[in-house]
């Protein structure tokens, strides 16, 4: 039985004072601290909030970056290495988010290099994949996902694959649109991802891997999505910004 993993992706939102009040409210909403032991909770936050989030989080909550560079150091203005993330005491990073692929031309190969670099630094990669609307409409969803996974895996050392990683299936057309994949649609893709991982990296690793759904997950639809056998959690954008909303998703996963 895989423990559920609920991650908020704050994207480019919140200041330090708002981070403090968010976590105070989250504690008010979830007074039973054991919830944070039954479900893994994480937040991908802007780098300016690492310190504040690490101080203010309930015990056990992980703080993630939203991106990293794969090179250990160098002339890469504006980037953060995995050693810097570890030095800042965060637990891992979201990588390959569709917004990074779309606006910053990030390739699946680059995502694979980041995956490898994170693992080698002892950090947790949360690897996003997902198809666009035209790709789904033309029946290419699983081909696109397969290609994204294979191109990334081609850059990950075999020895790095034994360390934990998380995959987030985020259909691009469902992100920030209020359109959610139905539980059945999401389950179909999650099942494919697990089966494909099983072929590529072996049954044991694939079975252990938590596959999150992302794309307009909210307090109203989380329970049903999380009840599907291969949906092991959520990567939540908009609904992670308010503690009242996000706490309901955490509680839906903690039963
Ligand atoms: P929304 O939950 O706002 O659709 O965003 C999903 C997402 O991009 C999480 O990474």
What does this structure look like?
- The structure is a single chain.
- The chain is of the alpha/beta class.
- It contains twelve helices and eight strands.
- It has an eight-stranded parallel β-barrel, surrounded by five helices.
- α3 (50-56) links the parallel β2 and β3 (62-65).
- Bound molecules: 1,3-dihydroxyacetonephosphate.
- The site of 1,3-dihydroxyacetonephosphate has 14 residues, from β8.
- 1,3-dihydroxyacetonephosphate is lined by residues 9, 97, 170, 175-176, 214-217, 235-239.
Low-confidence segments, given as residue ranges, are none
Biggest sheet strand line-up: 1-2-3-4-5-6-7-8
Strand content: 5-15%
Ligand identities: 1,3-dihydroxyacetonephosphate
What is the total tally of β strands? 8
Determine Rg (CA atoms, Å): 17 Å
Helicity, in percent?
A: 40-55%
Give the biggest beta sheet.
8 strands, parallel, barrel
* Class derived from helix and strand content: alpha/beta
Q: H/E series, N to C? A: EHHEHEHEHHEHHEHHEHEH
Distance between the termini: 13 Å
Tell the overall outline. Answer: globular
Number of helices: 12
Overall residue-averaged pLDDT value: 97
* Multimerization status: single chain
């Amino acid at each position: 039985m895989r423990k559920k993993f609920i991650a908020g992706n704050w994207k480019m939102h919140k200041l330090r004072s708002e981070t403090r009040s968010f976590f105070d409210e989250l504690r008010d909403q979830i007074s039973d601290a054991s919830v944070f032991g039954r479900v893994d909770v994480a937040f991908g936050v802007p780098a300016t909030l690492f310190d504040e989030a690490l101080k203010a989080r309930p015990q056990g909550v992980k703080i993630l970056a939203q991106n990293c560079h794969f090179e250990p150091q160098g002339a890469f203005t504006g980037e953060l290495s995995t050693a810097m993330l570890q030095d800042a005491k965060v637990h891992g990073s979201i990588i390959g988010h569709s917004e990074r692929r779309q606006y910053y031309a990030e390739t699946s190969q680059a995502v694979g290099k980041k995956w490898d670099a994170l693992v080698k630094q002892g950090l947790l990669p949360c690897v996003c994949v997902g198809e666009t609307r035209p790709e789904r409409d033309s029946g290419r969803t699983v081909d696109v996902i397969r290609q994204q996974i294979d191109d990334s895996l081609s850059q990950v050392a075999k020895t790095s694959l034994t360390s934990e990683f998380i995959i987030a299936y985020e259909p691009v057309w469902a992100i920030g649109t209020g359109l959610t994949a139905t539980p059945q649609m999401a389950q179909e893709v999650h099942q494919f991802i697990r089966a494909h991982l099983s072929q590529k990296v072996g049954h044991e690793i694939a079975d252990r891997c938590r596959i999150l759904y992302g794309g307009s997950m909210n307090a109203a639809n989380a329970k049903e999505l999380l009840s599907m056998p291969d949906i092991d959690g959520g990567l939540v954008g908009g609904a992670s910004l308010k503690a009242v909303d996000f706490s309901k998703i955490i509680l839906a996963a903690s039963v």
